[in-house]
Design goal:
This protein is of the alpha/beta class. The protein is about 35% helix and about 15% strand. It binds pyridoxal-5'-phosphate (PLP).
Length: about 375
């Protein structure tokens, strides 16, 4: 039995005709950019997350650039971020003229190591951008303490964490602002690109609304150099409908994680762990093994999806060579880059598919080898 790494389309099958109707309604409305669908989605998203403002933008990368600027990050500033994340995190810090300061990650959550972040604060540090990697929150209590103590802005990169919680609060409501991506493989997916900035601050929200639209409130007066970063009405309409499903999709992903453990995957590879207080949403299910090539080969032979995310840490990327990091500087990050492998995880995955994946892994990494 072939098992894909992810299967985004399968989850829409039960309400495909409704989605077709939604698309038809938007087409007939003639409102394709912003408009009532975007407004309604922003209100429903803010309500779901428990924040005062949600601002739709074109994608999660723009959301980061805009949110960084809204929090006052600019040329000459340093911003603390993990080196183990999607490239958009440091890329946007650089794109607003600041310098990413790469921190190691916690071996349990794979999110930013707060002690390392604390040690790297300087007089130029302006913000911290923790990433809720693979759908599990960074330690926001300790980060909030650090941010308050040193007067830093705290921006959650929650691209991978729609619906995740820490201490009963949703990702997206844990920092000064947060950003999301609605890329089609994300837990809350669009049928194309989409993104969002969330915040409780009226000032941040107002500036974000201007920056996403060329730095203007009214198309007449331009007070900032901004972006053309709009959320399409058709994506907002689809997202509103998916929002009604996302909790059950996330719940099923947690069930799948439980099945992996039950099926004995933990005897073969190191399973991802969850910190106390966190409710993860398993955007990706990333196990760790010293025998990654053998695992990948066995999965490929059986048509089981398995792939490496972030195989090369950002502090060692050529684009950041000038920053002067060297191999061995961020040992946990480097180890995760060398040993992490994502196994199939999706909202319609069956127990039989889980068993198939575990058998494929066993063929590559026999019990006792780990
Ligand atoms: C952690 C993280 N940040 C930012 C982004 C950027 O989002 P987008 O692809 O919507 O621009 C992603 C997307 O993969 C991501 O995983």
């Amino acid at each position: 039995m072939a098992v894909p790494l992810m299967d985004p389309n399968a989850q829409f099958a039960p309400y495909l005709s409704e989605l077709e109707q939604i698309a038809a309604d938007v087409i007939r409305s003639g409102r394709f950019i912003f408009g009532p669908e975007v407004q309604a989605f922003e209100a429903e998203a803010a309500d779901y997350l428990g924040v005062r403002h949600a601002v739709g933008v074109a994608n999660g990368t723009d959301a980061l650039s805009i949110a960084l600027r809204c929090l006052g990050v600019g040329p000459g500033d340093e911003v603390l971020c993990p080196a183990y994340t999607f490239f958009a995190t440091p890329e946007t810090i650089s794109s607003v003229g600041a310098t990413p300061v790469f921190c190691d990650v916690d071996p349990v959550t794979a999110c930013i190591d707060v002690d390392d972040a604390r040690a790297k604060v300087t007089g130029r540090t302006r913000a911290i951008v923790p990433v809720h990697l693979f759908g599990q929150c960074a330690d926001m209590v300790a980060l909030r303490e650090l941010a308050t103590e040193r007067g830093l802005a705290l921006l959650e990169d929650a691209a991978q964490a729609w619906g995740a919680e820490q201490g009963g609060t949703k990702a997206g409501a844990l920092g000064d602002a947060a950003t999301f991506s609605f890329f089609p493989t994300k837990n809350l997916p669009a049928f194309g690109d989409g993104g969002m900035i969330t915040t409780d601050s009226d000032e941040v929200a107002e500036l974000a609304r201007m920056l996403r639209f060329h730095g203007s409130k009214d198309k007449q007066t331009f007070t900032h150099v901004g972006y053309n970063s709009r959320l399409d009405a058709i994506q907002a309409a689809f997202l509103r409908r998916h929002l009604r499903e996302v909790d059950s999709w996330n719940e099923h992903r947690r069930t799948v994680a439980g099945w992996y453990a039950e099926a004995g995957l933990g005897e073969l590879v190191e399973l991802p762990a969850v910190a106390e207080d966190n409710v993860p949403i398993w955007h990706l299910y990333v196990v760790r093994t010293d025998h990654r090539e053998a695992l990948l080969a066995a999965c490929s032979e059986r048509s089981v999806g398995a792939t490496v995310y972030y195989g090369s840490p950002h502090h060692l990327q050529p684009v950041y060579a000038d920053l002067g990091y060297g191999a061995g500087d961020l040992p946990v990050t480097e180890r995760l880059c060398a040993t992490g492998v994502a196994l199939p995880m999706f909202a319609t995955m069956t127990r039989a598919q889980v068993d198939e994946v575990v058998e494929a892994v066993r063929a590559g990494v026999p019990a006792g080898v780990r």
